[in-house]
Design a protein that fits this description.
The protein contains three helices and five strands, in the order H-E-E-H-E-E-E-H. The chain is of the alpha+beta class.
Length: about 120
């Protein structure tokens, strides 16, 4: 029998085949790491907690402005892009890409993965 964590890890492995995805994680809405595919040099628990905080802050700001629901948050630096998106009521999907990554295909695959994650958790 396949566990929830194994199902989530498979979704993350499949997402990595999109290309340019260097790290990914499924995070609970309160910032706990549920599953990840991240390099050893990244502290997964900190990455999870700060990603949830980032998305939560964006949701608070957009709610205060009465401008709907946050679809995703994208942070860009010279060395990476981080994208956080809701994945159902209980989880978030967070990925890190190379800075030059084109986001079209990545965002499309993220949306599919978010649907799968929402069905699992």
């Amino acid at each position: 029998m396949t566990t929830t964590k194994e199902l989530l890890e498979k979704i993350l492995r499949d997402l990595k085949t999109t290309g340019d995805v260097e790290a990914s994680a499924v995070v609970s809405r309160d910032g706990l790491l549920m599953a990840s595919d991240i390099p050893r040099e990244i502290h997964g628990e900190t990455f999870a907690a700060m990603s949830a905080t980032m998305l939560g802050a964006a949701e608070t700001a957009i709610n205060e402005l009465k401008r709907g629901v946050v679809n995703r948050v994208i942070v860009e630096s010279k060395q990476a892009k981080i994208i956080a998106s809701g994945a159902g009521e209980k989880a978030l999907l967070v990925i890190m890409t190379r800075p030059e990554a084109g986001l079209g295909l990545i965002l499309m695959e993220m949306e599919k993965a978010c649907g799968k994650i929402g069905n699992v958790v």
